[in-house]
């Protein structure tokens, strides 16, 4: 698998896929997409990078351990539901904060935070499995 | 919701949403689950910091106990409370509905988890911590509490999955061959059980178009034939699924095959909590939702209960490995709890029997966890889990021997400890319902359990040393263990808390009897439960 062509193209490909995964994550609220599918795309980007350049370089690139990433995702996913405590509404009631940026209305909200949490959980969990499997292969 | 919808007409959200402000106190309903999730996530991030982890986890577990105390107090004060997630009313939204039964079990489970976390400080080494003992424990608790508190069938399935996934992680913590072997048996059987659960839930949704427990309970009670073919099929599927999770006969073999493999504190948590969640789910579904099917299936349940009681007791007699022996005692306890489910054709007797089951579940959660912990201490003192290799523990540590004796009495159902009262209630209810065989089986199983625990006492504590020691002679324990092996505070405190609870519930049973009676009454007459979800219609 480690041909010159693949090794040269893989970093660019991975970067593009991560970018695309964030796009999919953000469009997910009203159109097909969302945290889960975005997370899968990002995890496969990391997997491709791992196959081409080795698992060690992936671990260096994402800095934190994938499981910590998943833990952080779980944390903000659960914490997104707590915000409605302060508005005397039930757990997980969505809160909306529309922001006007250069004439475009952007709706920031707790579902978005929750979706980012899901994204991180999926990236963390899937990539830690994938990296462990790839590591075993290279032994 | 607030997305770019094309409708221009004003939507009346009040029909589908709970728009009334929610008191902060009602957030206690989701607090146990939230603390579990948030705490588990933080412990997961701090996985590599082995000295910080126990402190973090103990903080969250004590927070969990506090939240559950508050929740139980609120439920006892205000009756059943419901919170609908995101404000969406059932049948569209998911409801958490907490009645005295759920709150009691959730509290006891969190106390046990707190003790286990404390016990784990000395028994789980840094490798076990790095592989995530504490994150798994806290996440497991979020699953267990979620299962006790939810009011939605599919949501119950989700919490079951949360606790099962955490339990897989705990089970293979040491990554040894035996553990993987045990985990495969455990995993495969649980997956099959989960499939039955899902099929049953799918059928419920197909028939009633709702998954909210209160909603289904109303719809079933309004039917002309509440125990017709389809409903009976669903009831049997659920019974099979949860009997598997609870390790009832004949689907009990996974328990003794897997519970002796993990770290002793993991075994303690599993023995205390996991099977009881299955029993709880059975209570919820068979009594609250499908009472007519329960009455129809009562004879079958009674047979299963008797077989489970006897399998557990005879299995315990046949074992010489303490952890396997205790595993069979867990099964015998499940038999006693199922017995309560089989009793009763009129509401009064049913309520008594169910309250016996609830009390027994509470007792079993506490005493089985404590016994597994005691087995861990026995291994620490005597260097073995096998009765053949143990001996002379009484001489080594009199206080521990006394503590073990209390637990042995309790698990056998002898007074004045916690096992006595639920058995009295159950046997009394069985005889007054004309199910003499069931009562006799409970008594006989208790008798055999007494013998099994007596064996442990005689072999491990009374005789001078391991097998081969001449009579009347005391031998220093093998493996270079000195006679003065110190039991640390992290072992004494959890064991002490659990044993104190066993003694307290034995000497002052009124409180728990009253609590389980309220829990049972809420199941048998679901009016309060339903009103809490749908208001006073």
UniProtKB/TrEMBL annotation, chain A:
<keyword id="KW-0472">Membrane</keyword>
<feature type="transmembrane region" description="Helical">
    <location>
        <begin position="112"/>
        <end position="133"/>
    </location>
</feature>
<protein>
    <submittedName>
        <fullName>Multisubunit sodium/proton antiporter, MrpB subunit</fullName>
    </submittedName>
</protein>
<feature type="transmembrane region" description="Helical">
    <location>
        <begin position="69"/>
        <end position="92"/>
    </location>
</feature>
<comment type="similarity">
    <text>Belongs to the CPA3 antiporters (TC 2.A.63) subunit B family.</text>
</comment>
<keyword id="KW-1003">Cell membrane</keyword>
<dbReference type="InterPro" id="IPR007182">
    <property type="entry name" value="MnhB"/>
</dbReference>
<dbReference type="Pfam" id="PF04039">
    <property type="entry name" value="MnhB"/>
</dbReference>
<feature type="domain" description="Na+/H+ antiporter MnhB subunit-related protein">
    <location>
        <begin position="5"/>
        <end position="127"/>
    </location>
</feature>
<feature type="transmembrane region" description="Helical">
    <location>
        <begin position="35"/>
        <end position="57"/>
    </location>
</feature>
<keyword id="KW-0812">Transmembrane</keyword>
<keyword id="KW-1133">Transmembrane helix</keyword>
<dbReference type="InterPro" id="IPR050622">
    <property type="entry name" value="CPA3_antiporter_subunitB"/>
</dbReference>
<feature type="transmembrane region" description="Helical">
    <location>
        <begin position="12"/>
        <end position="29"/>
    </location>
</feature>
UniProtKB/TrEMBL annotation, chain B:
<feature type="transmembrane region" description="Helical">
    <location>
        <begin position="483"/>
        <end position="507"/>
    </location>
</feature>
<feature type="transmembrane region" description="Helical">
    <location>
        <begin position="186"/>
        <end position="211"/>
    </location>
</feature>
<feature type="transmembrane region" description="Helical">
    <location>
        <begin position="96"/>
        <end position="119"/>
    </location>
</feature>
<dbReference type="InterPro" id="IPR001750">
    <property type="entry name" value="ND/Mrp_TM"/>
</dbReference>
<feature type="transmembrane region" description="Helical">
    <location>
        <begin position="437"/>
        <end position="462"/>
    </location>
</feature>
<feature type="transmembrane region" description="Helical">
    <location>
        <begin position="131"/>
        <end position="150"/>
    </location>
</feature>
<feature type="transmembrane region" description="Helical">
    <location>
        <begin position="325"/>
        <end position="345"/>
    </location>
</feature>
<feature type="domain" description="NADH:quinone oxidoreductase/Mrp antiporter transmembrane">
    <location>
        <begin position="151"/>
        <end position="449"/>
    </location>
</feature>
<comment type="similarity">
    <text>Belongs to the CPA3 antiporters (TC 2.A.63) subunit D family.</text>
</comment>
<feature type="transmembrane region" description="Helical">
    <location>
        <begin position="231"/>
        <end position="255"/>
    </location>
</feature>
<keyword id="KW-1003">Cell membrane</keyword>
<feature type="transmembrane region" description="Helical">
    <location>
        <begin position="264"/>
        <end position="290"/>
    </location>
</feature>
<feature type="transmembrane region" description="Helical">
    <location>
        <begin position="56"/>
        <end position="76"/>
    </location>
</feature>
<feature type="transmembrane region" description="Helical">
    <location>
        <begin position="156"/>
        <end position="174"/>
    </location>
</feature>
<feature type="transmembrane region" description="Helical">
    <location>
        <begin position="296"/>
        <end position="318"/>
    </location>
</feature>
<dbReference type="Pfam" id="PF00361">
    <property type="entry name" value="Proton_antipo_M"/>
</dbReference>
<feature type="transmembrane region" description="Helical">
    <location>
        <begin position="27"/>
        <end position="44"/>
    </location>
</feature>
<feature type="transmembrane region" description="Helical">
    <location>
        <begin position="357"/>
        <end position="377"/>
    </location>
</feature>
<keyword id="KW-0812">Transmembrane</keyword>
<feature type="transmembrane region" description="Helical">
    <location>
        <begin position="398"/>
        <end position="417"/>
    </location>
</feature>
<protein>
    <submittedName>
        <fullName>Multicomponent Na+:H+ antiporter subunit D</fullName>
    </submittedName>
</protein>
<keyword id="KW-0472">Membrane</keyword>
């Amino acid at each position: 698998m480690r041909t010159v062509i693949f090794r040269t193209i893989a970093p660019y490909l991975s970067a593009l896929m991560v970018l695309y995964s964030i796009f999919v994550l953000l469009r997910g609220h009203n159109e097909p997409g969302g945290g889960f599918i975005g997370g899968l795309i990002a995890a496969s980007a990391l997997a491709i990078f791992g196959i081409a350049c080795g698992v060690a370089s992936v671990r260096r690139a994402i800095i934190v351990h994938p499981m910590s990433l998943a833990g952080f995702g779980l944390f903000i996913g659960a914490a997104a539901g707590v915000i409605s405590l302060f508005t005397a509404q039930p757990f997980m009631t969505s809160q909306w904060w529309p922001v006007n940026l250069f004439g475009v209305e952007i709706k920031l909200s707790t579902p978005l935070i929750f979706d980012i949490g899901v994204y991180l959980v999926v990236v963390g969990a899937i990539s830690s499995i994938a990296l462990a499997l790839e590591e075993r292969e290279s032994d | 919701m607030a997305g770019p919808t094309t409708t221009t007409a004003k939507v009346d959200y009040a029909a589908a949403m709970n728009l009334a402000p929610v008191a902060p106190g009602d957030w206690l309903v989701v607090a146990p689950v939230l603390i579990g999730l948030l705490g588990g996530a933080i412990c997961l991030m701090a996985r590599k910091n082995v000295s910080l982890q126990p402190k973090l986890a103990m903080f969250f577990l004590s927070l969990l106990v506090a939240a559950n105390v508050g929740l139980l107090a609120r439920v006892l004060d205000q009756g059943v409370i419901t919170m609908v997630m995101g404000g969406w009313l059932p049948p569209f939204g998911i409801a958490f509905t907490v009645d005295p039964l759920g709150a009691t079990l959730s509290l006891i489970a969190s106390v046990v988890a707190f003790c286990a976390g404390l016990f784990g400080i000395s028994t789980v080494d840094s490798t076990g911590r790095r592989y995530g003992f504490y994150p798994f424990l806290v996440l497991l608790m979020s699953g267990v509490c979620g299962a006790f508190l939810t009011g939605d069938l599919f949501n119950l399935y989700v919490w079951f999955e949360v606790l099962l996934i955490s339990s897989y992680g705990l089970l293979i913590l040491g990554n040894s061959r035996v553990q993987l072997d045990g985990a495969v048996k455990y995993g495969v059987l649980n997956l099959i059980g989960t499939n039955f659960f899902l099929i049953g839930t799918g059928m419920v949704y197909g028939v009633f178009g709702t998954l909210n427990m209160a909603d289904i309970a109303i719809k079933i009670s309004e039917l002309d034939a509440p125990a017709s073919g389809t409903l009976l099929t669903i009831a049997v599927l659920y019974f099979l699924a949860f009997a598997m999770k609870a390790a009832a006969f004949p689907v009990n073999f996974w328990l003794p095959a897997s519970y002796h493999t993990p770290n002793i504190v993991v075994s303690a948590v599993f023995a205390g909590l996991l099977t009881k969640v299955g029993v709880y789910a059975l209570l919820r579904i068979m009594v609250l939702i499908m009472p007519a099917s329960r009455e129809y299936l009562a004879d079958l349940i009674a047979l299963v209960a008797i077989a489970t009681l006897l399998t557990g007791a005879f299995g315990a007699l046949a074992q010489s490995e303490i952890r396997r022996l205790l595993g069979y005692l867990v099964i015998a306890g499940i038999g006693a709890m199922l017995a309560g489910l089989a009793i009763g054709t009129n509401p009064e007797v049913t309520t008594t029997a169910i309250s016996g089951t609830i009390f027994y579940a509470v007792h079993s959660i506490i005493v089985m966890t404590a016994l597994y912990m005691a087995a861990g201490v026995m291994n620490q003192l005597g260097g073995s889990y096998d009765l053949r290799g143990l001996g002379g523990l009484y001489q080594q540590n009199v206080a521990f021997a006394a503590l073990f004796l209390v637990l042995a009495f309790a698990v056998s159902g002898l007074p004045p400890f916690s096992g006595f009262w639920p058995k009295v209630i159950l046997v009394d209810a069985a005889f007054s319902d004309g199910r003499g065989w069931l009562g006799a089986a409970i008594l006989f199983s208790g008798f055999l359990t007494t013998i099994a625990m007596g064996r442990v006492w005689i072999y491990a504590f009374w005789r001078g040393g391991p097998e081969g020691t001449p009579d009347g002679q005391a031998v220093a324990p093998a493996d270079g263990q000195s006679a003065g092996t110190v039991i640390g505070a992290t072992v004494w405190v959890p064991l002490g808390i659990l044993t104190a609870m066993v003694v307290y519930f034995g000497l002052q049973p009124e409180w728990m009897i009253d609590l389980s009676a309220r829990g049972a009454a809420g199941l048998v007459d679901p009016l309060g439960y339903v009103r809490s979800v749908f208001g006073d219609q």
